[in-house]
Amino acid sequence: MNEHTRQFVEGQIRQGIDETVTYQLETSTWSGTTRSSPAVTVYEYGPPDKYTDVSSTVSSGVPIVAGTVITFTLTAIGLNKTYRVEVKWTNENSEIFEAWGELQGER
What we know:
Helix content is 4%, strand content 60%. The protein has a single domain (3-106), classed as Immunoglobulin-like (Sandwich), CATH 2.60.40. The strands form two sheets. Strands 1, 2, 4, 5, 8 and 9 form a six-stranded mixed β-sheet that branches. A three-stranded antiparallel β-sheet has the order 3-7-6. The termini are far apart. A hairpin with a 3-residue loop joins β4 (36-46) and β5 (50-53). The radius of gyration is 14 Å and the shape is globular. It is built from one helix and nine strands; from the N terminus they run βββββαββββ. It has one helix spanning 55-58, and strands spanning 3-7, 13-16, 21-26, 36-46, 50-53, 59-66, 69-74, 82-90, 96-106. It is mainly β.
């Protein structure tokens, strides 16, 4: 089984602490045509190089696949907190792919 990792091209994403935002990740540039088993994991970054899984606190609902688009919702972001958002899925060849990006909580 192959595993690939890619960073979001948008760079660091900013989200207000009172916002609930639905994101869409377009995955058509990755191998395969079918997407399944989407998963979103959100880690809060805290120095020194410590990541804490806060997915149950900041994720709303479950990720959804429609064609090559994975949709997920984030909420309850902390002020001045930095998060690593990892989106993982499997294609029809059992290859696992993961895209990730940074999210910054702001007022």
